[in-house]
Structures are given as C-alpha cells and as structure tokens.
Amino acid sequence: MRQVALTVNGMRHELELEPRELLVYVLRDRLKLTGTNVGCDTSSCGACTVLVDGESVKSCTVLGVQADGAEITTIEGLAANGSLHPVQQAFHDHHALQCGYCTPGMVMAAVSLIEHGEATSEAAIREGLEGNLCRCTGYHNIVAAVQDAAGAMGRAR
Amino acid sequence: MSATTERPRLAVGRIGERLPREDAVPKVTGEFSYASDLSTPGMLWGDTLRSPHAHARVVSIDVTAALGLPGIHGALTHEDVPGKKLYGLEFADQPVLAIDRVRYVGEPVALVVAEHPEQARRALEAIVVEYEPLEPVVDMERALEQEPLHPDRPTMGHGYRDDRRPNVVRHLVIRHGDPDIAGDVVVTGTYELGIQDQAFLGPESGLAIPDGEGGVDIHVATQWLHVDRDQVAPCLDLRPEQVRLHLSGVGGSFGGREDLSMQIHSALLALHTGRPVKMVYDRAESFTGHVHRHPARIRCEHRATRDGRLTSVRMQILLDGGAYASSSTAVASNAASFGLGPYRVDNALIETTAVYTNNPPCGAMRGFGAVQTCFAAEAQMDQLAAELGLDPVELRLLNALEPGDSLPTGQVIEGSLPTREVIRRAAALPVPDQETLPRDPLRLPGGTGNTTTGEGIRRGVGFALGFKNICYSEGFDDFCAARVVLHADGSAVVHSAAAEVGQGVVGVMLQVARTELGTDEVTLAPHTTATVGSAGSTSASRMTWMAAGAVRDACRAALEERERRGGGEVDVERVHRHPRTTPLDPETGQITGERAHVALAVAAMRVVVEVDVELGLTRVVWVGTAQDVGKAVNPLALEGQIEGGTAQGLGLALMEEIVTRNGAIQNASFTDYLIPTALDMPPVEIELVEVPEPDAPYGVKGVGEPPTVVSTAAIVSAMRAATGRPLTRAPVRPDDICL
Amino acid sequence: MEVFRPSTLDEALRLRAEHPQARPIQGGTDVMVELTFGDARPEALLDLSELAELRGFAEEDGLLRLGAGLTYTEAMQTPLASRLPALAEASRTVGSPQIRNRGTIGGNLGTASPAGDALPPLLAERAEVELASARGTRTMPLAEFLLGVKRTALAPGELVTAVRVRPCEGPQTFAKVGQRNAMVIAICSLAVVVDAEAGEVRAAFGSSAVTARCVVVPLAEAAELPERVVEAASPIDDVRATAAYRRHALRVLAARTLERCLRT
Asked: How many domains would you assign to chain A?
C-alpha cells in the first residue's frame, strides 16, 4: 500500500492505494466519482478521459500512485455553483448525447480542446475528439455542441 | 456543416417539439447511474469461466481448488442451477452453464464469487475443466452436412418448415407468382457480409440482491425487463414475482442486450451466498458476452424488362446463427421478407436458411436481417441500372413499392409507405462540390495517416434505398403496458417498463403524457417489473409506437376515470396492442391472415465518397438522407437516431468485422475491432418525410433502424462508383479495392 | 505489485540494478493496456515519469538529444517539429490527444513493437539510442537496438535515457496506413528522408517485419526505393491486413513519400 495525496475537483484526498490500482478505479471505487466511465481495456474509447494537471488523459493509462500530488478534474468537477459548464450546457442543448456513456469523457476532451485554443474549426474539433468513441450519435451534434461551447467560452473570456 | 450557435428553445415538451433529452443533465454532469456504477454494502463480485474451445465435450469440472482460495464465497457449475438448465430468448437451447458440451468460444462454464474482482479472477484460473475437443462446425454452407450441434432440433415444431438437414435453425421459402418468368436482362451476384458487433460503449453489468425471502432483485442494463424475468425465474426455480428486474442506466444496446448476459448468473451467485453480487464484463468479455449481427452469404438473380421493370427476383440467403438460436428465426424471416427491397416484384423465390455453427452466437442487431439483404439487393439494382443504361434513381422510382402493392409474402400494403417521395427527396439533396487540392490530410482518405496529398483519389456518388418492418411480426403477441397515476393536485406519474437505452423513449412517454393530460407536472417512475406490466422490447423500431400508444391509452383512461369519480387520485394501467399479425405459411412463405408485419418504414440515402484507389482507403465525404418517419415526435432526437444509425452502417461498410479463426474471435478489443471516430463520420443532411401511419398512435413510426439498413448499401454503392470494382463484400477491405 | 517512483536518474539506475524484474514505464500507455487487457501481472514497475533528466530535448553542435520522456505532443510542437518533421508527423498518428500527452518516445523504443510509430522516422534519421546503467552510459544505433518483436538490445540494469539524432537538412515525411482515418494501429507505415549531403535516400518502414527496418538507396537510384522497400519487408497476414496488401501499400507509400520529398 502506498500513501498518496490527490486533489480531485479542488478537494484534497489522502489515500492508501494498492500500487496496481488505475486512476480510473481510484476515482470510481475509492472516491465514488462514477461519472468517469470505463468502456474498453485498451485505452481506445476515451470514456475515462479526465484532466490531470490541465491535460486530458485517459485515466486507464495512469496508476493512482502516479497521480500523487496531481490536480485532477473529472466530469463532476465542471459544473460550478449549480450551473452547467458551457460545454455541458451545449451538449444538453444540442442533443449531443444519447446513451450518454461516452459523454463525460467526451465533455472532458472537449473542455481540454477548447481551453488549449484548438477548437478552431469543425475539422479541428473532429481531430481533437479522435480519441473519444461514441456509438450512438454519429458525432454530428457533438461537433456542433463543441463549436457552440467554444464560442460561448470565447465570449466569456 | 451548419455552425449551430442558436440554442434550441426550451419548450413545454408536447409531441412534435424539438426537445433536449430528459436525462441530459444527469448524463452531462456524470450523475447518471449506469449498471456499471451500481454498488451496495456487502456486495461481492462474480466472474465467469468461459470455454476456450469452439466445440468440445466437457468431461469434468473441478472447482475444489478455487473454493480454497482467499476471499472466495462460492464456485458454481450447471449442477448448481436449481431450475431449468436451458434458457433462450425464443427457444431454450442454451445452457445457463455448460453441461456436457460447449459450442462456442466464450460459452459460460462455471461461476465464482469473491470479495474482490481480482480474487474472483484468480479463482477462475484454479478451476480445472477437462475438455475433449471436437471438430468445430465453422462454415455456414458445410454446416448443413455436418454433425448436428443440436440433435434435438429446438426450433422445430414452432410452425416453421420442417427441414431435416443438420443444423438448420430455420429454413423459409417465399414463393410469389412465377419466379421462372423471363426478363429481357438478367443480373446475378453473390454478396457477403462479415460479423458486426453492436459495440455499445457500456459493457454488460448487473447487480443481483437477494430479498431474504428466497427471491431476488436484479438491476441490469437490458432491452426488455419482463422477458429477462421470464427467462431467469424458471432457471432459478422461482415464481416470476419472486424475480424482479430493474432497469439501471444503459450504455447503448443496438440489439446486443436482447439476450441475457449475466442476469441468471448474478442471481445464482446472490442466492447462493445470500449477499448482493455484482458482475461486470470487460470489453473483451463483452465481445463474447452478447450476440452479434449475422454474417451472411446472399446469391441473387434479378430479371427485368428492357425498360427497367423487375419481372422476377431469386434470392438465396444463408445466415450463420452461431452456436445458439437467439433470434435467428426472426432474423431469417426479416431477411426474406425485406430481401427484395422496397420494390414491386410480382414474381419471386426467396429462400433463407439460418444455421447453427460453432461460431459466436448471432441474434439481434439494429436492422435485423434487413441490413444484409439491403446490401445485396441494392448492389443488384445498381448493377441492373448499369446493364440497362438507366439512372439508378430512375430505376428505383420506376419499381418503387407503394401502398396497394404487395410484399412477396402476399401482404398488401395498407399503411403509409411513401417510397417515391423518399427517393425523390433524397435524390434532390444537392451533393457538395469537390474540395480543391491541396487539402489538410484530415479531409482526404487515410486521414491522420497522411497517406495522400491527392494521389489516387477518385470520387463516387452512390444511392440506396432500404426498408424494414416496425414492431414484432408473424403472430407474436406484442403489447406494451403503461400505468398512469393522477394525483389530486393535478400532477401525474407514469409507470412503464419500457427500456431507455439511449434512444429517448423516456422523452417520448413524457411528451405523450404532457400532451394528453395537458400538464407539465408529469414524472416517470423507475422502470421495473415490480409495478407495471411488460412494455415489450426496445427492439424492432417499436418502442416509440408502443410506449406512446400505451401511455396515451392510460392517460385517456385516467382522465375518464377521474371524470367519472369527480376528482381525487386515480391509478390506471392500460395495455396497448398494435394490429394483430399472423404467421407465414411454413410451405409457401405466404401470409395466413391479413399481415405478417405490422408496418413498414423506408429510407433513401445519397452518399459521396472519395477513395484512394491505390491504397484502398476511403473517406465518406457527405451523406444525405430522406426517411419515412410517420410523425416526428421529437425531431431533434429523431435526427440523432438517423445520424447514429448511419454511423453504424458506415462502420459495417468500411471497418467493422469480428474476425474468427476456427470459431474463436481474433479481435475482441477496440484496438482491432474498429468503430468510426469523429474523423470517419461526415455530417448528415436529413429530410424527414412525415406521412402518418394510420394504425399508430399520432401516426408515429419507429426510426432507429432504417438508417442502418440503408447506409452500408449506400456507402458501398458510392465506393463502387468511385472504383469501378464490384465490391460484393462488407466490410470492404482495402485489398478489395487495390489488389 | 510494487511501483518504484525514483525522482533522480541515479536512483532509477540503482533500482533498476536491484530489481531487474521491475518493468520500466514512462507514460504507461502500452504497459497499462498489458495490465488491463493482457492481464499481465508484473512483479514491479519502475516509473520513470518523474525523472527531470529524461524530459524534453536539448541541442548541442547540431546533435539533438531527445529525452526518453519526451511526449508525442511535445514532438509535434515547434521548434522540434521543424527539425524532425517526419517524427512530428508520425507522432501525430499515435493514438489520440490523450495518449500523445502521456506516451513517450522512450516508451516507444522500450516497447519495440514493430508497429511503433516513432521508430521509422528515427531509423530513417539514423538515430542512436542512449542507454544508461549504474555502470555508465553507452549509445548504439537504433537499428541495432531493435532485435525483434518487442525485443531490444537493452542489457540487464540498463534504461533507455535518450535518443540522439543529427537531423539531416533534406526533406522528409511520414505516412501510415490504417483501416480507419484516425486512432489506429499501423497496417504499415513508412518514413522517408532525403539526405543530399550523404547522397542517399533512406526509408524506414513499420508493421511489415519483426522490427521497424531501414532501407538506404543512393540518391541517383532513388527511383528504386519502392522496390527496395518491398524487398526488405517480410510482412505477415494478421487480423489487421494481409501480407500482400502490406507489400502493395509499402510500394505505394514509398513512391508517394519520395515524390513528396523530391518535389519540395
């Protein structure tokens, strides 16, 4: 067991972790943040995407102990003061989800993309979301939502 | 694509309005609870030992060593199944746990239950199973001559043709008119499709909780709670009311959750230990944990007059059902019934055979038999147009099936079927101009791989037309219950077991209730078998129709009841049934009553592709489609269904195939089973054609399947136009284009 | 399973010597898949992601030293992307943004998959691998480092610490074939470097032999390149593609990438 300190959505957690535990299971099983989903075993689907120190990563490729000292943002950490994050609002408004299983990872990838200033066009958004598989929507409304959110966030700045 | 910056108006939420999802907020915030998120104090973890053999005799199973491991609370085999040892969606031919024989790689053999998933995994490794491998049946043609895998023929005696060849699940012959009649021109072809996986993003998961009185509550992601219950209870030797199924969040289904996965297994473990037991499949296990789309081999001969009228069509359709029946009999019927496509053909001979093999079991997937035959029939229509020198769209208009015409089963089309309108609307969508070079490689075939700067690129435009049935067919007693509680304060609660799998039936039911009750104070109770009757399956593009009908009927009855009582609280349950169907004649394949299918929906699609003909790589540039939807309940959600359904057809056209070797899946991961990414899917332009279905509530039709039926055919049609190659197999492999 | 998390290279090398069974990892994008999908249960991991010595890149007298911890995302950014454009193009095809943020060049070398996307551009640039152990540091050509499918010349106690490249001035590019337009493992890949100074064209390919492999052709005989690449390849049929297709695609890629380089 290893003593680890993680800051997740602004809250500091000190945890005793098995070295083998992946960050995604630390989030889901230990911290009960089950919004981050697991869709594959091969780091392909992107459902487990979170931000680690501001970068989007698939939390199935990171050991919990490797995240010691890191700042992590999950889907649960986006909405502030009871109002949806602009990306969440745009996914809601544009019907950019159906079953919703990919949605948390997709939203986190989109947040990272917009915050890095890379959501500049339809093509750039599609490229930025290449690592997030969606089986329901055909991506059309997801791309529209991210375009909308990028605009909204740009205006907000 | 149109940059949408305008927010949809938040409306009251009646029928016909563009509305965001009812569950959008919990889904975008991560609060929505999927089956994989379930947990409860004292919960144990179950795991499944699966067969490594496609076909073997099970000589012995020894769980002793597993039971001695730390944290283990039990290890079960077929001997521990207290009730019926076999189950099945339509025919009980599949062992809950293997008895004396395994018939596919991945077949469940034993179960373990432990404190921790890792302990369970280690316990599986400690179970000793002695197998005596047998020759596997892996070729669907040869299966008809090999040793029968189910000598007791479980699907026979159910009103199907009595075919004595080995391994026949169903053999259906539809003879219509005089199939020998001549034509001026004849085109023939043989088409093949590989195995497609539903690849829903949320792998199978469930939690079984013993109720302390011998019964069990099972929380699971499924498509039909009551049919699960009715399969689970007999195997547990319990009465149906002792087994309660509750819907947990479903991460997509697409047919893959019609059959049981861990429902019986988790319940067995929960009842054995007296503790809650959770089971979660990983992606690899998911690939063996559910049925797939049937691979097919289809031989066609189309005859037509010089001016393009179809005179006769012959089709021979072979479907590999894999190790167990699942819904193969119905898939076979659909393949045959819709094999010709939405065309008027007075003479036809359609022969469909679904077989048992030792390949992965196949059953329901979006499109359900019609996908495979649409691919073949539309390739034939393109070939015929080329042979006759006719425009492919004109050829389709000329032969379009319309109300008043009959299906090859003899069923006269009485409902809505605006085939010509759908063709015209899709064909009228303007295709985009060719983009100039140089271009970002993302906008070229090969995408991020940077394989071309324009070399080898050919553009092609394709067109296809497809249709299928709405609701269950062939005499199935298909119904849907809904219960409405009207409170004295005017608010209402709707109870329904209709499974929300992402398609949006929750929204549909609320829209109906708000419309009927004239109030926005409507909520939906949890989906369960405990408080309301069966809703039937979220399948066959039926749930919008059936749930809308049931909720409407229950609402109206509740209002009447309140009126009669002069107020107060009322609680009313109603069952909605669509028009009755009857079986097909087992010898002729003709209808035995007015209809074998309830209603039909048609879609046309126009596609632009660019193919790198030297590397065999494809970019789908644009998709335009027109679809017959009856009445759009929520156009926003409906368009989402069309876009998503199109993406799945694109996957089958270009990349999706479960590859097997001697029955074993070789690519059970998202690394090697590829599904389309955001860079593979183009924007989709959509025309909704609304001609109300007379028999349906509000005129609705299901919309989920037609886009998947037609898109594979339309995309490969465009690829043929680009390459000049026959491309008779889906998915199209790069080899098929450039070698 | 134990996870060692050294904070200096010296400490890492000491742990490496003491725990030869510990699997070195950087971003973990390969190893975690083995853990979860392959059910691998290594006794220990040696996590190198905290080592400042392995981060980033440096240049001295025209020699670039890419730290083993250089991420693909970093390799895609300027100024590195303009010095090693084929590596940048190859990095662009690795997984997805999330994977490129974690995955490293050093990890690609350590895994030594025939499909490793960074390997062809580095081979075509005649890169050398820097290997360190408690005994000292040595370098060897990348071509000699790659021995077989996931097999390298890494000696006991050694870690990959860097890749050294002297970028050649001529044009270069990379292309990769997959059956999907993004996020896909290479069916085959190819990097081409036109080295006018040395008077040669070098092409290195991936996913078509037990290791990524490099072919060199005199500039005057550049037209021979596609054929020479195909001769050097020994692809197999697998679930991703046929050997025949791989040969064909390599020929096409070699011709196209060469043409792209020569026309610039």
From this structure: 2
Task: Write down the pLDDT at residue A156.
Answer: 56
Residue C60 falls inside a structural domain: no
Cα four-point dihedral sign B79, B81, B82, B84? negative
Instruction: Note down the domain range covering A62.
Output: 2-77
B30-86 tens-digit pLDDT:
999 999 999 999 999 999 999 999 999 999 999 999 999 999 999 999 999 999 999
> Which pLDDT belongs to residue B6?
40
Instruction: Quote the CA–CA distance of A141 and A137 in Å, as a whole number.
Output: 7
Secondary structure, 3-state, B91-141:
CCCEECCCCCEECCCCCEEEEEEECCHHHHHHHHHHCEEEEEECCCCCCCC
Tokens of A79: 């909405």
- Are A39 and B25 in contact (CB < 8 Å)? no
| Mean of all residue pLDDT scores within chain A | 96
Give tens-digit pLDDT for C97-135.
Answer: 999 999 999 999 999 999 999 999 999 999 999 999 999
Q: Which of C37, C189, C252 sits opposite B614 (nearest CB)?
A: C252
Is 80 exceeded by the pLDDT of residue C67?
yes
Contact B398, B309 (CB under 8 A): yes
Check: CB of residue A41 under 8 Å from CB of residue A100: no
**A70 closest CA partner among A31, A113, A12, A3:** A12
Indicate yes or no: CB of C98 within 8 angstroms of CB of A61. Answer: yes
Host domain of residue C192? 172-263
DSSP state letter for A15 = E
Minimal-distance CA residue of chain B relative to C89: B450
B342 lies in the same domain as B403: yes
Chain B residues touching residue C95 (CB < 8 angstroms): none
Counting as contact any 3 or more CB pairs under 8 A, the partners of A are B, C
Mean pLDDT, residues A90-106: 98
**Secondary structure (3-state) at B539:** coil
pLDDT, averaged across chain B? 96
Query: Which CATH number goes with the domain that contains A54?
Result: 3.10.20.30
Check whether residue B606 and residue B520 sit in a common domain.
Answer: no
Those residues with Cβ within 8 angstroms of residue B593's Cβ, 6 or more apart along the chain or in another chain: B580, B581, B582
What is the domain-level CATH number for residue B634? Answer: 3.30.365.10
Together in a domain, B335 and B412 = yes
Residue B563 and residue B597 in one domain = no
Domain count, chain B: 3
pLDDT in tens, C156-182: 999 999 999 999 989 999 999 999 999
Residues B349 and B316: beta-carbon distance below 8 Å: no
**pLDDT tens for residues B105-146?**
999 999 999 999 999 999 999 999 999 999 999 999 999 999
Q: Are both A95 and A139 inside the same structural domain? A: yes
**Residue C74 domain-assigned (yes or no):** no
Whole-model pTM: value is 0.97
Give the integer Cα–Cα distance in Å for B169 and B158.
Answer: 11
Contact C182/A at CB under 8 A: yes
CB B142 within 8 A of CB B95: no
Q: How many domains does chain C have?
A: 1
